[in-house]
């Protein structure tokens, strides 16, 4: 498949998977690392694990993988630090400066230690800075409180001194005489605690202190207007400055414990006004010094991160490559001489020359005295499946692979899915206005694909971006079917000429009751716009879409059965051709192929025959005359022949194949017994091993039951699958009716009010309804139904899907891995 072929047509690389071969490489140990590296650049060989019985820690290169894992951890640490700072790794291409893993390991260790030390110092300085900021706030707010208290006290003292004791007024303290007679030589000493507490906790803080001290405290608070950075958590939160006055050591201890419990930061404070001024000045100077130191540290840290960012991608790629190389080397087995590594793996046949060139280059670049040996092994093991896809075909292939990966060189439904999937979607989504909206959306992703492919997108956006070419094809086919249905947001247009029908009179009063009359030749393309709004609209469109769904379904199911013939012919399985393909094609077309023929004949002749009646009485009364339901001469005889063929096809599918398989098994074993008599000892051992693994005891009952299930499934499936294609009609009708409802009941209704505001609201509602329901939900619904028709109705006719995907060792895939 990979080689150029003669002839007028290019090879269909997608129809059959690439021919694969099992290769063995014998690589000298001194050039093994470079060889595997060059093979990773080629990316066309899938290595087999020859050390599956060993744990990861018992393998040869476990220590190297551990080192690579440690370096990957350091790089993740650097990336986190860069993201926190707002830096991103540089994408500019640079010459590789560090190709040696040992040097890179030392360098990353030094950078990590330096960065950790910087972070620790910066965190310590920042915490000290935040504590000083809080201290400064406490000095300011508490100083204001003490200053106002002292001013009030002095004013009261002067007032008391200016008035004699005998003169009382309402403002005179009641206990003034006791206060004046108090012994001033024994003053009551009150202590106080100052600090900051989170504002949301202050009410509880105040209540707990009051209860713990039984009210023997005085609390004063001051609100800090701006948010304060907490020294412990580093978060900006709202705080209040508090001053708690207490009496006694026990009260003090209780208050300190409560402060710790509420996360209140305490700071020392002096009553002396001179000391307060001195402390404010000292704190301000220290804040200035710390700010300068922190800024210098941040500049130094930023420069270091810039240096790391410039080479981050290069270092990360090198570590990923080295880790993947050592993982691959761990899959190779060591020769008994301890001088060579033996590798086995699958590769496409067309990649033979590229692999051999990589081996020669590795031998030359590593100055190895012995070259690597490349040889193809014979095996009965099933090879992996590999399709060469591009950015257009890959999304369609993913749709098929989601059902199951094709068996090796099995016919690939992906070739036909490129056309049939978007077409069946469009049959359900037929509206060329909505199709244009999908087209614009897909073109946006296609035009910006280079930029978007390098960005990290959300889950839904990334999925939509990956299927941009599928959406493009769906949009193109939707425009086509929309033109066939003649619907533009449910509005018909006379795009290809004038309508063939007209009203009976100028008033058009009888249009919806009596109908229209034909005055011109038939509308050239698609549905005549005059059908919309007439009394025959729903019966006509339902009949058209229902019959079209049956025609499309029978055609696709026939395609699936024909592909089963090509599979059987390719694999040389004549039993499947004669006892599976032939009876299946006869059974399906005797019933539903004949129905499709009747639909086409009825369309061409304009007959009024009832096809339901024809198909039902074809089984119930096959010998009765058809009467007015006869579409062509000899129809009764043809129906009898087709019914007989359908009845014969069922035992044809069921009975012969199990007996022929049993006979083949017996003949094969008899032939082996005669050939083994003249075989050598080596051949005896080889055949015996093959017999023990490849030829199990033939279970006739199991084969017969399997064939019985397959026959019943096909016979019943022929009916149910044909009925399943009627979803094309149902969803097309639902889409059309929803579109009509939004147009008539929202847009036209708003237009009829002759009010600009109502019209604007109506247009907005119409746009949101169209986008949300018709362009999102209906698109998803039609997509899922088209997916089901391909997976169940089409692929079950020929597709086994029990293979496994080719997963080569390739450096190009490293970027997709999540380390």
From TrEMBL:
Keywords from the named record: Coiled coil, Hydrogen ion transport, Ion transport, Membrane, Transmembrane, Transmembrane helix, Transport
Classification via Pfam families: V_ATPase_I
Membrane-spanning parts: 423-447, 468-485, 548-566, 578-601, 637-655, 756-777
Taxonomic superkingdom: Eukaryota
Topology of this chain in the membrane: Multi-pass membrane protein
One GO cellular component term noted in the UniProt record for this chain: vacuolar proton-transporting V-type ATPase, V0 domain
Protein name: V-type proton ATPase subunit a
Organism, as annotated: Liquidambar formosana (Formosan gum)
Source species taxonomy: Eukaryota, Viridiplantae, Streptophyta, Embryophyta, Tracheophyta
């Amino acid at each position: 498949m990979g080689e150029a072929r003669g002839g007028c047509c290019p090879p269909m690389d997608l129809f059959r998977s690439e021919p694969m071969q099992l290769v063995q490489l014998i690589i000298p140990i001194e050039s093994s690392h470079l060889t595997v590296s060059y093979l990773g650049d080629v990316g066309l060989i899938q290595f087999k694990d020859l050390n599956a019985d060993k744990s990861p820690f018992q393998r040869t290169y476990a220590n190297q993988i551990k080192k690579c894992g440690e370096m990957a951890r350091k790089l993740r640490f650097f990336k986190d630090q860069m993201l926190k700072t707002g830096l991103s790794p540089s994408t500019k291409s640079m010459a590789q400066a560090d190709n040696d893993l040992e040097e890179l390991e030392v360098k990353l260790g030094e950078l990590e230690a330096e960065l950790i030390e910087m972070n620790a110092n910066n965190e310590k300085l920042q915490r000290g800075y935040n504590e000083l900021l809080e201290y400064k706030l406490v000095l300011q707010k508490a100083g204001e409180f003490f200053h106002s208290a002292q001013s009030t006290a002095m004013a009261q003292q002067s007032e008391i001194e200016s008035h004699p004791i005998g003169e009382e007024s309402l403002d005179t303290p009641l206990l003034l005489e006791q206060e004046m007679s108090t012994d001033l030589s024994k003053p009551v000493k009150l202590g106080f605690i100052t600090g900051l507490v989170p504002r949301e906790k202050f009410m509880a803080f105040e209540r707990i202190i009051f209860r713990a001290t039984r009210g023997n405290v005085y609390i004063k608070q001051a609100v800090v207007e701006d948010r304060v950075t907490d020294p412990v958590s580093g978060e900006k939160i709202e705080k209040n400055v508090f001053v708690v006055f207490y009496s006694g050591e026990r009260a003090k201890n209780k208050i300190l414990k409560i402060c710790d419990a509420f996360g209140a930061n305490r700071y020392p404070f002096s009553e002396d006004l001179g000391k307060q001024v001195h402390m404010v000045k000292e704190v301000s100077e220290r804040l200035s010094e710390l700010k300068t130191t922190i800024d210098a540290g941040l500049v130094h840290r930023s420069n270091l991160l810039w240096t790391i960012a410039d080479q981050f991608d290069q270092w990360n790629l090198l570590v990923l490559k080295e880790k993947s190389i050592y993982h691959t080397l761990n899959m190779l087995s060591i020769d008994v001489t301890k001088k060579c590594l033996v590798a086995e793996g699958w590769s496409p046949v067309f990649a033979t020359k590229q692999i051999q060139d990589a081996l020669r280059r590795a031998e030359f670049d590593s100055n190895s005295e012995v070259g690597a040996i490349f040889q193809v092994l014979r095996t009965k093991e099933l090879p992996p499946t590999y399709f060469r896809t591009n950015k257009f075909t890959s999304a369609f292939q993913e749709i098929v692979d989601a059902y199951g990966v094709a068996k090796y060189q099995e016919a690939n439904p992906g070739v036909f899915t490129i056309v049939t999937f978007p077409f069946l979607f469009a049959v359900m989504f037929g509206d060329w206005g909505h199709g244009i909206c999908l087209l614009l959306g897909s073109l946006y992703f296609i035009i910006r694909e280079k930029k978007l492919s390098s960005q990290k997108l959300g889950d839904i956006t990334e999925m939509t971006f990956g299927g941009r070419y599928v959406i493009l094809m769906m949009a193109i086919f939707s425009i086509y079917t929309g033109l066939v249905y003649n619907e533009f947001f449910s509005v018909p247009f006379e795009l290809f000429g004038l309508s063939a029908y007209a009203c009976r009179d100028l008033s058009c009063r009888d249009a919806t009751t009596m109908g229209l009359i034909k005055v011109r030749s038939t509308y050239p393309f698609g549905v005549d716009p005059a059908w919309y709004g007439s009394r025959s609209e729903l019966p006509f469109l339902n009949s058209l879409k229902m019959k079209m769904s049956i025609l499309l379904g029978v055609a696709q199911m026939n395609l699936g059965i024909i592909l089963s013939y090509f599979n059987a012919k390719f694999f040389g399985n004549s039993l499947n051709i004669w006892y599976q393909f032939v009876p299946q094609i006869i059974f399906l077309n005797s019933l539903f192929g004949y129905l499709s023929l009747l639909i086409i004949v009825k369309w061409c002749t304009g007959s009024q025959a009832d096809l339901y009646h024809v198909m039902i009485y074809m089984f119930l009364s096959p010998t009765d005359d058809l009467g007015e339901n006869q579409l062509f001469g000899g129809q009764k005889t043809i129906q009898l022949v087709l019914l007989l063929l359908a009845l014969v096809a069922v035992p044809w599918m069921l009975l012969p194949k199990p007996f022929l398989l049993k006979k083949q098994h017996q003949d094969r074993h008899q032939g082996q017994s005669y050939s083994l008599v003249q075989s050598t000892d080596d051949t005896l051992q080889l055949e015996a091993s093959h017999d023990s693994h490849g030829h199990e005891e033939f279970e006739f009952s199991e084969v017969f039951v399997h064939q019985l299930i397959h026959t019943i499934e096909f016979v019943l499936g022929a009916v149910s699958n044909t009925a399943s294609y009627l979803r094309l009609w149902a969803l097309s009708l639902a889409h059309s009716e929803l579109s009509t409802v939004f147009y008539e009941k929202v847009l036209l209704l708003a237009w009829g009010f002759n009010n600009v505001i109502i019209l604007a609201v109506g247009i907005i509602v119409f746009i949101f309804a169209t986008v949300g329901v018709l362009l999102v939900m209906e698109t998803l619904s039609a997509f899922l139904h088209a997916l089901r028709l391909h997976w169940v109705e089409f692929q079950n006719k020929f597709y086994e899907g029990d293979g496994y995907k080719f997963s080569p060792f390739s450096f190009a895939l490293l970027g997709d891995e999540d380390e």
